[in-house]
Write a structure and sequence with these properties.
Elements: H1 19-38, H2 43-50, H3 54-75, H4 78-82, H5 84-104, H6 108-136, H7 141-169, H8 176-184, H9 186-194, H10 218-250, H11 255-275, H12 281-305, H13 308-336, H14 342-367, H15 373-406
Helix pairs in contact: 1-5, 1-6, 1-7, 1-8, 1-9, 2-3, 3-6, 3-14, 5-6, 5-8, 5-9, 6-7, 6-14, 7-11, 7-13, 10-11, 10-12, 10-13, 10-14, 10-15, 11-13, 12-13, 12-15
Subcellular location: Cell membrane
GO molecular function, one term: transmembrane transporter activity
GO cellular component, one term: plasma membrane
């Protein structure tokens, strides 16, 4: 029996720690998110070169979350059945295919197709690596949750930064970013080829099936989901219209500047995760949604007042709150989900999160055809405040339940 093979009943700790599997999981989610967010500073370049309107830019962005939703809805629990390692190898193949299609894109339909494939890759990778890091990290589930959150954040930060710099300083701004990501994807591929085999379901299994959440964990699941929706509402607007936010708020707009704004957001996310590593999950989520709402409101005010300083403050607040939410929500899911269904529950969590990402982007793009960006941001802030309010109320209900069960 090779290292990493599962033993014991479904809900027992089923995996042996594996440094190689943990490293491969962290590297793969970083690369997948790197590819996902690399396009953010390039949308302004696509719009200029291809003469795209805001609705068409939103369509290109929305191809990504749609791809995520399709995969996590139908194949979200795949790694619970065929094993983490095999599923991650499929994810690497999808990342490479996405890079090929997007690098070759010369029309909007091809770009949308590339973004769709990138979403499929991220959907397959994110839920699987989240479960794998909790399963295989040598220092346990808390360290696994932190590693997944940090690697996700690093991908969100370096993707826009690298793509923005390449767009500003090379002759092939819409090709080289994807070539670089494809090259980096070889790192997790090599690690996975060296990794041990892991558990897979025995007997006949149904690979394609709709993900479901166990009834017993619906309340903590809804807390984790709504908190992540607050973050993704902001990420959709910053990711799709970061150039316009920078122009109207700070009076400047370059691909590198847009990448820098997103990098600031993600840097604050990373710092918050590292600082709050020992903060209880529920407290991290509760504080995070409040800070995100404050950041969205500050950004709205910055657009109204044309204030570069407030744009920076609002972005930093969204990033800080996002770090707290990502870390706390990941732990809530990891702690509440049954071991043998972790990937499936993480996948279900991602459905609502990425539906928010795609829906906000599409609705924002359509609205910008007739209203100002300030109005769009104000409406989004209202939705974020409502989600934050539900999260806090649900947390209070969960706290009362926990106290009753402890008596």
């Amino acid at each position: 029996m090779r290292d990493g093979t599962a033993i014991g009943p479904p809900d027992a700790p089923a995996y042996r720690p594996s440094v190689v599997m943990a490293a491969a999981s962290g590297a793969l989610v970083l690369v997948a998110v790197l590819g996902s967010f690399a396009a953010s500073p390039l949308f302004a370049v696509y719009a200029q070169r291809w003469d795209l309107d805001p609705a068409q830019v939103s369509l290109a962005f929305a191809g990504y979350p749609v791809g995520v939703i399709v995969v996590v809805t139908l194949l979200g629990g795949l790694s619970d059945l065929i094993g983490r390692r095999v599923t991650m190898l499929l994810g690497v193949a999808l990342v490479l295919l996405a890079c090929l299609v997007t690098a070759a894109a010369t029309t909007l339909p091809v770009l949308v197709a590339g973004r769709f494939v990138q979403g499929m890759a991220t959907g397959m990778v994110s839920a699987t690596t989240a479960a794998a890091l909790l399963d295989f990290h040598p220092r346990g589930t808390r360290a696994g949750s932190l590693t997944h959150a940090v690697c996700t954040t690093l991908g969100m930060g370096f993707g826009p930064l690298v793509a923005g710099l390449l767009a500003d300083h090379t002759a092939y701004p819409l090709v080289l970013p994807y070539v670089v990501i494809a090259a980096v994807a070889l790192v997790p591929l090599v690690l996975l080829l060296r990794a041990p085999a892991d558990r897979r379901a025995t007997g006949r299994v149904r690979l394609v099936r709709t993900v479901r959440v166990p009834r017993a964990i619906l309340l903590p699941f809804s807390i984790a989901t709504c908190s992540l929706m607050t973050l993704n509402s902001c990420m959709a607007l910053f990711g799709t219209f970061g150039g316009r936010i920078l122009t109207e708020g700070a009076g400047t707009s370059t691909a590198g500047g847009t990448g820098g704004l997103l990098t600031l957001l993600v840097t604050m996310t990373l710092l918050a995760q590292l600082t709050a590593n020992r903060v209880p999950a529920a407290r991290s989520v509760g504080l995070g949604v409040l800070v995100i709402a404050a950041g969205a409101g500050t950004t709205t005010a910055a657009l109204h007042l044309n204030s570069g300083a407030m744009t920076i403050v609002g972005t930093a607040l969204v990033g800080t709150g996002g770090g707290l939410v990502l870390l706390g929500a990941t732990r809530l899911i990891g702690d509440s989900a049954p071991t043998h269904r972790r990937a499936e529950v993480f996948a279900a969590w991602m459905v609502a999160a990425f539906a928010t990402l795609g829906g906000t982007s599409l609705l924002g793009g359509l609205a910008l055809g007739g209203v100002a960006l300030t109005t769009v941001m104000a409406v989004a802030t209202g939705g974020i405040a409502a989600l934050a309010a539900y999260t806090l109320v649900a947390m209070a209900v969960q706290t009362r339940r926990d106290r009753r069960s402890a008596r």
